[in-house]
Design a protein that fits this description.
Creatine Kinase, Chain A, domain 2; 40% helix
């Protein structure tokens, strides 16, 4: 029942500035500037979008699926990614990747793409209108925007089993993967009046399970839109999580979740820790607890801290890897690296936070905040602290605090630049990206599971890609190199 953990990240970037301070217009400028600079104006194909499909298999008239805004700027990149305007934010959706390390690389490439798009945009704008982008999750005014993860799962795994397995992880993983936040901004959050939270997103979640992503946000999203063969696969669309500036945190977040999902497919939810009795309150209370000592009652009658949940989950994963190798997640050395970082970060946040300040975003940010408070004798609610919080996520190299706190990097600038232009070789993203690069004039649209060609005569021709592990370099590189035109490619494929 296990399937390879194909995965990726969608990141909505915070945006400030632009003409008339209009975030939608500014976001469109960002996307269009990069599309023109990269000479790609290929549209996104919305024909197969089905955001209202619900994994529970029922219609809930109290739930509202996300609105797909087809008129906003939207393009496909040569690295297989999607760059578009999502409501009032520019969003980069990485190409499908085969391992957590590869997915982290293409998330880093997304930062570079957004930085280049911002720089190109600002060349044509008056200095008073210059746009700034932030890789964060809230604007300080009560609005939150997402960093969504996506994981390929077997359709044989029942959705109720997914819920039972992932909730203990999703409510607790913020203690190592949270990006940190000064203060609060929701009504419930402000009642608690925290000086600091572990997570940017935790206070915005209101439901355990649901279809929405912008209202009544659920811990487990039920969108059933696999972008692949729906009889074989489902896609777990994870909306609870922060945008990490730390590459190691992104890698360990993707890796730990992938390992647990593979374990869930193999052995079911019974081996997992029991769910908290009140998961939504748990997410929020764990975010407020910088001491990591707050415990919640679980359905099995035990009380667990966030650290307890993560410790149990790490040990389950470690045992699973020793028994099976977890090759569906990644090669042996990469799986070992996932476990290493996950364990060190988990022990570090409890026993010696300074030892993981180079990997855990909230620890790195809190050190800066506390240092500033001590140096200038600032109160918890001082506006300077919120400004520093935001500056941590600034994409501009000369402004970003995250670039100055000594975070470990997993990739060189050269590797990131390579991933900006070229797709991963391990999934169907290779075929999509290569087609965009080689035949831009003959492609009218593309999406995750197809590419649509216009050869100049006859009807449009759609090439379906319903298996994320087809269309790889191994399977298509020779075909692409032997056919210099789209006409020749399709003739060879139709055979």
């Amino acid at each position: 029942m296990q399937v390879p953990k194909v995965l990726g990240i969608e990141t909505e970037y915070g945006i400030a500035g632009g003409p008339e301070q209009d975030p939608i217009f500014a976001s469109s400028i960002i996307v269009n500037a990069y599309a023109q600079e990269g000479r790609t104006r290929i549209n996104w194909d919305f024909d197969s979008e089905s955001p209202s499909s619900d994994s529970r298999g029922v219609l809930n008239f109290a739930s509202f699926a996300p609105i797909v805004e087809t008129h906003l700027a939207n393009t496909v990149l040569t690295n297989g990614a999607r760059l578009y305007v999502d409501h009032a934010h520019p969003e980069y959706s990485s190409p499908e990747c085969r391992t957590p390390l590869e997915a982290t690389l293409y998330d880093v490439a997304g930062e570079e793409i957004m930085l280049r798009a911002m720089n190109v945009s600002n060349l044509s704008l008056d200095p008073s209108m210059r746009i700034t982008l932030y890789k964060n999750n809230c604007d300080g005014k009560g609005n939150s925007y997402g960093t969504h993860e996506n994981y390929l799962l077997s359709r044989e795994l029942e959705f109720k089993a997914v819920v039972a397995g992932v909730v203990p992880h999703f409510v607790s993983r913020q203690i190592i993967f949270g990006a940190g936040k000064v203060g609060a901004e929701t009504e419930d959050g402000l009642e608690q009046n925290p000086a600091f939270q572990l997570s940017q997103r935790a206070e915005f979640f209101e439901e355990v399970i649901g279809l929405e992503t912008t209202l009544k946000r659920p811990i487990v999203n039920t969108r059933d839109e696999p972008h692949s063969d729906a009889e074989r696969f489902r896609r777990l669309h994870v909306i609870i999580g922060d945008a990490n500036m730390s590459q190691v945190a992104t890698f360990a977040k993707l890796g730990s979740t992938s390992l647990l999902l593979s374990l869930l497919e193999a052995e079911g939810p019974k081996v997992f820790p029991s769910m908290p009795v009140h998961p939504v309150q748990t997410v929020r209370s764990f975010a407020l607890d910088t001491t990591l000592t707050h415990a919640v009652l679980c359905e099995d009658g035990k009380k667990r801290t966030a650290w307890d949940f993560q410790d149990e989950l790490w040990n389950l994963s470690d045992s699973f890897v020793k028994r099976t190798g977890a090759q569906d997640v990644a090669p042996e050395d990469e799986v070992a690296l996932i476990l290493k970082h996950w364990r060190e970060m988990l022990d570090g946040v409890r026993d010696n936070p300074a030892s993981v300040a180079d990997r855990v975003d909230w620890v790195a940010k809190l050190r800066v905040i506390e240092g500033l408070k001590d140096r200038y004798n600032l109160l918890d609610n001082d506006a300077k602290l919120r400004a520093v919080d935001l500056q941590y996520h600034d994409l501009r190299n000369e402004k970003s605090l995250a670039r100055r706190v000594g975070l470990q990097e997993l990739f060189s600038n050269e590797q990131a630049s390579e991933a900006v232009h070229n797709p991963p070789k391990t999934t169907r993203a290779y075929f999509r990206g290569q087609c965009v690069a080689r035949y831009p004039e003959q492609i009218v649209a593309a999406n995750w599971d197809s590419v649509v060609f216009d050869l100049g005569e006859g009807p449009l021709q759609r090439v379906p890609m319903l298996d994320p592990l087809r269309g790889t370099a191994e399977l298509t590189q020779d075909l692409l190199e032997k056919n210099a035109t789209a006409n020749a490619l399709l003739k060879a494929m139709n055979g």
